[in-house]
Amino acid sequence: MIRYLSRSEVAELLGVKPDTLNRYKLPEPDAMIGRARGWLPETIEEWDANRPGNGNWRSNQSRPES
User: Looking at the whole model, is its pTM more than 0.85?
Assistant: First the structure.
């Protein structure tokens, strides 16, 4: 059986409160059951590793000369 993460489980994995997810542009869900969305852990882990924020936004920008 494939196990999908709920929004509250996604929040827990990311270390944030569930309401904080409203400020994030999460990836498209891997599954929909009615109105409930579900994500594979790998989907969220890859998205989190590549999303801007937590210092990641500077990785694609050149740094100013000091």
Answer: no
